[in-house]
């Protein structure tokens, strides 16, 4: 066992040289360390086991060692090494940047900044969710913002990996987490729903936008349970500058029922990046908490609720993709109909899907296109109106659908960029008819199929068999 | 070093061939065989020859209850198993009997214990199917990791430093870090007769440097293995169950 009190700079543990002690956390000591062959700075986390065998310290440490070594990507510290039974420690990348905690003093922050930070954290969450991991302790002190603004999640001691033993659930009969941030279903000891992280991110954004914690800082489990029936005050009560779209987003994250929240972090990020497209519901205009009758009925429901059934992270993500419909408004009507039919089939199988209807206006690379057409109409607005009209019959809730029109000299590249930047899971688009020119220049859909980061469905309009010939 | 662990081959040549081939392709450099080389399947001689070849090159092998029964130990078995043992006794040769008779019940190496059924009383062939039997097994030894077979159902039991036991159903090809502050009991599923409703052969790989364990499922030519069982005159149920994995 490492005796943390006897550690000193210059000491070497398994080839890692202790350079400087950093701020201690609650359950561990942190040292900046170096190692031959590692150019970047590293950090060694040593669990504090001095209070005898504290199960949460030990098991949380084991859980983190297990999960961190399985994670990769820019949104988690790179795992380097772990010690053995005699010398427990984890060595990982020392993430340069600042803790999100340091921004709390400045709260309330402007809406645009809250949305920007929230979108970065949502991006990080989506990255770990796609690796079968739910963090389950999202809070400002567990988020580091790199200098480029991107977010890194740290401390996986309470996290859960879908395909690995859940040491935490097996060790503790009571819920674990941080009182101010823990999601209602976690209070009910349900671990592993990625939407729990969305709830905690909602608490974080609420705090950043208002300077207040929506559920206070309860310490006892009995007080944690209050959030199962009691909704928070709307953010605008604390800060009237919180715009309706941000209140809509935050309150949707804080819904008691996971099904009423965003179904994936990518969908949340999408809304944070497109405030104009956020469908405003009653949440946006809310001025007070729910009345006593609603709260009472929730309380009764919780009391009689059966235990929650585990579902896998991958299962939730599979059910909540972002589907992008790339629509060519100038194409023949029957292609539009075929596209709508294909979309209906896709949407029927995934009830939590989010649909982004996109139209790309092709503009010349050279000339600045006029803002108005010959009749004095704004072509951008005109397209938006047509897009909405086209999508109206689709079976999607208004809050799950958004419309985007943009200009680009290269529509295929614009579609691919959009899909990449918004974590689109599935592109559905039409293939236009054939022409000698199209065969020569190549088609938009072929370019999208070749370059898209996700599944692409290319829809062809039904045609009579005698209409031979290749299509675009 | 990467060690491949195989158990409950039960005379199934096609399944063992597929697993060995898979292990070789994935860069395994040591082999452990956890017993029950014979019984149920139609190729006991070939399987014993193959295992003894690996043992000659340094592999670890321990005795299983079907192996003990095939070389004479009186065994308490169901009808199909007993019929298969009677058949096996008639087809294996002296060199196979000699090899099986010399196998140890337990091997312990560097904090890892290998046994066919349970370390509690290895010759008693106890099944580890639940937290109770797993906890009995883990407290019977000081080993950091126990590897066994016998149940034909892959599962992973573990005990925390506070003495809490839990079980886990391993997922195909997912690497599981066996953390050092916990004790582990890994039941490797069967190569030759899986019983977890997944008919694919099962084996596992341990990376000794990192203590990362990976369970692997390998599809194999069940048609041939089942046909040989029928042609050998063994109980037909032993052929059917391979398709269903029970």
TrEMBL record, chain A:
Molecular-function GO terms, alphabetical: ATP binding; protein serine/threonine kinase activity
Q: SMART domains this protein is in? A: S_TKc
Query: Which domain of life does the UniProt lineage start with?
Result: Bacteria
Q: Which CDD domains match?
A: STKc_PknB_like (cd14014), USP-like (cd00293)
Q: Signal sequence span per UniProt?
A: none
**Which Gene3D superfamilies would you find in this protein's record?**
HUPs, Phosphorylase Kinase, domain 1, Transferase(Phosphotransferase) domain 1
Question: Is Nucleotide-binding among the key words of this record?
Answer: yes
Keywords in alphabetical order: ATP-binding, Kinase, Nucleotide-binding, Transferase
Q: Which PANTHER family match?
A: MITOGEN-ACTIVATED PROTEIN KINASE KINASE KINASE 20-RELATED, SERINE_THREONINE-PROTEIN KINASE YBDM-RELATED
Q: Which family does it belong to?
A: Belongs to the universal stress protein A family.
Q: What is this protein called?
A: Serine/threonine-protein kinase PrkC
From TrEMBL, chain B:
User: Taking every annotated instance into account, which residue ranges of this chain make up the domain Calcineurin-like phosphoesterase?
Assistant: 1-207
Q: Which GO terms describe its molecular function?
A: phosphatase activity
List residues traversing the bilayer.
none
Record Pfam families: Metallophos_2 (PF12850)
Which domain of life does the UniProt lineage start with? Bacteria
PANTHER family, alphabetically? BLL5683 PROTEIN, METALLOPHOSPHOESTERASE
- Family membership: Belongs to the metallophosphoesterase superfamily. YfcE family.
* Lineage of the species this protein comes from: Bacteria, Pseudomonadati, Pseudomonadota, Alphaproteobacteria, Hyphomicrobiales
In its UniProt entry, the species of origin is given as Rhodoplanes serenus
A single Gene Ontology CC annotation of this entry is: cytoplasm
* Protein name, UniProt field: Metallophosphoesterase
């Amino acid at each position: 066992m490492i005796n943390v009190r006897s550690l000193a700079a210059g000491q070497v543990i398994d080839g890692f040289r202790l350079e400087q002690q950093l701020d201690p956390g609650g359950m561990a000591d942190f040292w900046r360390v170096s190692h031959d062959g590692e150019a970047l700075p590293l950090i060694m986390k040593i669990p504090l086991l001095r209070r005898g065998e504290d199960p949460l310290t030990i098991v949380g440490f084991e859980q983190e060692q297990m999960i961190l070594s399985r994670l990769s990507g820019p949104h988690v510290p790179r795992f380097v090494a772990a010690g053995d039974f005699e010398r427990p420690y984890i060595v990982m990348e020392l993430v340069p940047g600042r803790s999100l905690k340091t921004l709390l003093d400045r709260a309330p922050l402007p809406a645009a900044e809250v949305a920007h930070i929230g979108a970065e954290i949502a991006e990080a969450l989506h990255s770990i969710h796609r690796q079968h991991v739910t963090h389950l302790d999202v809070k400002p002190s567990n988020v580091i913002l790199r200098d480029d603004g991107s977010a890194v999640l740290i401390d996986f001691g309470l996290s859960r990996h879908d395909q690995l033993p859940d040491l935490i659930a097996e060790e503790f009969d009571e819920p674990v987490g941080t009182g101010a941030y823990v999601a209602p279903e976690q209070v009910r000891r349900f671990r592993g729903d990625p939407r729990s992280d969305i709830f905690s991110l909602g608490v974080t954004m609420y705090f950043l936008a208002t300077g207040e914690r929506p559920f206070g800082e309860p310490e006892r489990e009995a007080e944690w349970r209050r959030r199962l029936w009691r909704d928070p005050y709307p953010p605008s009560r604390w800060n009237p500058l919180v715009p309706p779209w941000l209140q809509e987003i935050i309150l949707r994250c804080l819904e008691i029922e996971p099904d009423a929240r965003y179904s994936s972090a990518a969908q949340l990020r999408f809304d944070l990046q497109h405030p104009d497209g956020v469908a405003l519901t009653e949440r946006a205009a809310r001025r007070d908490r729910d009345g006593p009758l609603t709260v009472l009925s929730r309380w009764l429901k919780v009391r009689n609720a059966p235990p929650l059934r585990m579902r896998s992270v991958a299962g939730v993500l599979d059910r909540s993709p972002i589907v992008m419909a790339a629509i060519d408004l100038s194409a023949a009507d029957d292609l539009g109909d075929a596209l709508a039919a294909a979309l209906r089939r896709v949407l029927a199988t995934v009830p939590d899907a989010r649909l982004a209807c996109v139209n790309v206006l092709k503009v010349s690379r050279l000339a600045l296109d006029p803002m108005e057409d010959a009749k004095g109409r704004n072509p951008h607005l005109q397209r938006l109106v047509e897009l909405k009209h086209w999508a109206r019959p689709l079976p999607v809730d208004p809050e799950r659908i958004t419309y985007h029109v943009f200009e680009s000299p290269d529509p295929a590249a614009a579609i691919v960029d959009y899909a990449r930047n918004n974590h689109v899971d599935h592109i559905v688009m039409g293939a236009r008819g054939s022409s000698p020119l199209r065969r020569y220049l190549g088609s938009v859909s072929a370019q999208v199929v070749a370059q898209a980061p996700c599944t692409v469905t290319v829809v062809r309009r039904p045609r009579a068999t005698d209409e031979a010939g290749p299509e675009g | 070093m990467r060690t491949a662990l195989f158990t409950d081959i039960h005379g199934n040549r096609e399944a063992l061939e597929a697993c060995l081939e898979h292990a070789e392709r994935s860069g395994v450099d040591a082999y452990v065989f956890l017993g029950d080389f014979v019984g149920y399947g139609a190729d006991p001689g070939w399987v014993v020859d193959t295992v003894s070849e690996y043992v000659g090159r340094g592999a670890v092998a321990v005795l299983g209850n079907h192996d003990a029964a095939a070389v004479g130990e009186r065994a308490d078995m169901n009808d199909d198993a007993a019929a298969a043992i009677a058949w096996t006794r008639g087809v294996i040769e002296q060199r196979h009997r000699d090899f099986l008779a010399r196998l140890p019940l337990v091997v312990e190496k560097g904090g890892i214990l290998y046994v066919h059924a349970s370390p509690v009383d290895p010759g008693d062939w106890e099944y580890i199917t639940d937290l109770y039997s797993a906890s009995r097994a883990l407290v019977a030894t000081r080993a950091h990791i126990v590897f066994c077979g016998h149940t034909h159902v892959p599962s992973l039991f573990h005990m925390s430093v506070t003495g809490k036991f839990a079980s886990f159903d391993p997922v195909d090809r997912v690497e599981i870090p066996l953390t050092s502050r916990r004790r582990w009991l890994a039941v490797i599923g069967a190569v030759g007769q899986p019983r977890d409703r997944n008919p694919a052969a099962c084996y596992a790989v341990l990376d000794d440097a990192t203590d990362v364990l990976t369970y692997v499922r390998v599809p194999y030519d069940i048609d041939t293995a089942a046909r040989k069982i029928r042609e050998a005159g063994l109980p037909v149920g032993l052929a059917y169950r391979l398709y269903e994995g029970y």
